[in-house]
Design a protein that fits this description.
The chain is mostly helical. The chain has helices spanning 11-17, 22-31, 45-64, 74-83, 88-116, 124-145, 151-163, 171-179, 186-218, 244-269, 302-310, 313-333, 338-355, 358-371, 376-379, 392-413, 418-436, 438-441; strands at 34-36, 241-243.
């Protein structure tokens, strides 16, 4: 009897298959990978993220051919690319627009995961790899932001690196080590270039590969949050699944076409996007002796930058009081060792909030807002995955969270005022409360019954 693993042994494909698992890889990840048949438009963004990643790598390679990582020539080399290199302006604008659109796509991809519970068991590792990709993207964008050596690039890097000096004991030395100098200089530019072009992309590609392998191992989630592997036909194929290729390759090509229309419209007609994608100050050479009136990071960092600015000395009183309340609630709700361990830890945090400089806690709030995402699979205790079957007021909480995130992003682009600072503090509390109180609010309310099979409506 022939083995089930018998593959084509004739022709060029057979020759390759005897030496490399080409056919089995294509079958395992495309033609025989069964995805739920009820995907909607939210499922465009995973493939779009892959497309933009490839676009950034390809355009980056062409830019590196002409860019000079030298403080004396970096700005001029960018101008040379824009004005003298044939098609250089087009490649540069695709790369700069791609950076922002990458974050647009990734934020929407993460939004889909949040509303449909794609981080829940057994997909915790997929989510962890995804958050790791998000962190790598933030690092990649930060290191690349300095490379044009414009005014905002220079001073933005100066401000962000200086944040590390707020870390007790090792902060000042750490900031010098990151810069390679006492100020942002040629040494900083060279190491940022190395990280942007080589180190971070390697880590990013590894995480993307791990993300996809983990996804195809456990299978894709869907808008109903139902595992399609629970119902199979006599051949072992999910009854509610369809092959990824050709059905979802065509589906994703449609999404790609729509994306490219928007992407190219921005590249050709509004590459600066009113100063949000490319700041006007960055068209001026870096001047260490002249500080811009308002220094702010690029829009995709601004929600977290708002949390940093919101953490003032007065605000630490609010955070300390919240920690005390959290200690009391934990003591009342938990059992065993956790009944005493968590309250003691929270009381210690409350004391430290008032004894360590607020600047340090601003850095903690900014970093902690991202690190919290890693723990999402264990914070959400809801009995159902998808928002479709959760109580109506859960949807309201999600809506408040998303609107709050957008507002925080807007506030981060604006010059600080007392009113904006207060709004940022309220927004920071909403963001932190959404996640930290998840174990409580996700189990409250009347949940709708989840169907045994996916609910499919043709579209």
């Amino acid at each position: 009897m022939a083995s089930e693993k018998t593959v084509e042994t004739t022709g060029a494909l057979g020759w390759i298959d005897q030496r490399f698992p080409l056919s089995s890889t294509i079958k395992g990840h495309l033609t025989q990978y069964y995805a739920p048949k009820n995907f909607n438009f939210w499922y465009f963004f995973g493939s779009l993220a892959m497309f933009v990643l490839v676009l950034q790598i390809v355009t980056g390679i062409f830019l590196v051919m002409h860019y000079k990582p030298d403080a004396a020539y970096a700005f001029q080399s960018v101008e040379y690319i824009m004005r003298e290199v044939p098609g250089g302006w087009f490649v540069r604008y695709m790369h700069s627009t791609g950076a922002s659109m990458f974050f647009v796509v990734v934020y929407l991809h993460m939004t889909r995961a949040l509303i449909y519970g794609s981080y829940r068991k057994p997909r915790e590792l997929i989510w962890i790899f995804g958050v790791g990709i998000f962190l790598c993207l933030m690092a990649e964008a930060f290191f690349g932001y300095l490379l044009p050596w414009g005014q905002m690039s220079y001073w933005g890097a100066q401000v962000i690196v200086n944040l590390f000096s707020a870390i007790p004991f090792i902060g000042p030395e750490l900031a010098i080590w990151i810069r390679g100098d006492y100020v942002v200089s040629d040494a900083t530019l060279n190491r940022f270039f190395a990280f942007h072009v080589i180190a971070i992309p390697l880590v990013l590609l590894g995480l993307v590969a791990a993300h996809i392998v983990a996804l195809h191992e456990v299978g894709s989630n869907n808008p109903d949050g139902i595992d399609i592997k629970d119902h199979k036909d006599k051949y072992g194929r999910p009854l509610d699944g369809i092959p990824f290729h050709p059905y979802y390759t065509v589906h994703d090509i449609l999404g790609l076409a729509g994306f490219l229309i928007i992407f190219m419209a921005i590249v050709f007609f509004a590459p600066e996007m009113g100063g949000y994608f490319l700041e006007y100050n960055n068209f001026v050479p870096a001047d260490p002796l002249k500080t811009p009136l308002h220094i702010a990071p690029v829009w995709y960092f601004t929600p977290f930058y708002s949390m940093l600015r919101a953490t003032t000395s007065d605000f630490t009183w609010v955070l300390a009081a919240s920690a005390i309340i959290g200690a009391a609630l934990t003591f009342l709700r938990c059992k065993g060792l956790a009944k005493f361990a968590w309250p003691i830890a929270l009381v210690i945090v409350a004391v430290l909030l008032r004894t360590i400089d607020a600047k340090f806690w601003g850095v903690v709030a900014m970093g902690g807002a991202v690190v919290l995402l890693f723990f999402l699979p264990w914070l959400d205790h809801s009995p159902v995955r998808s928002i479709r079957y959760r109580p109506g007021w859960h949807k309201t909480l999600y809506a408040i969270f998303f609107i709050n995130f957008i507002v925080l992003g807007y506030l981060g682009t604006q010059a600080p005022t007392d009113a904006f600072n207060l709004m940022s503090q309220i927004g920071t509390m909403i963001y932190l409360a959404f996640f930290l109180l998840m174990p409580i609010w996700t189990v409250k309310g009347a949940f709708k019954p989840v169907p045994d099979r996916v609910v499919f409506h043709a579209h």
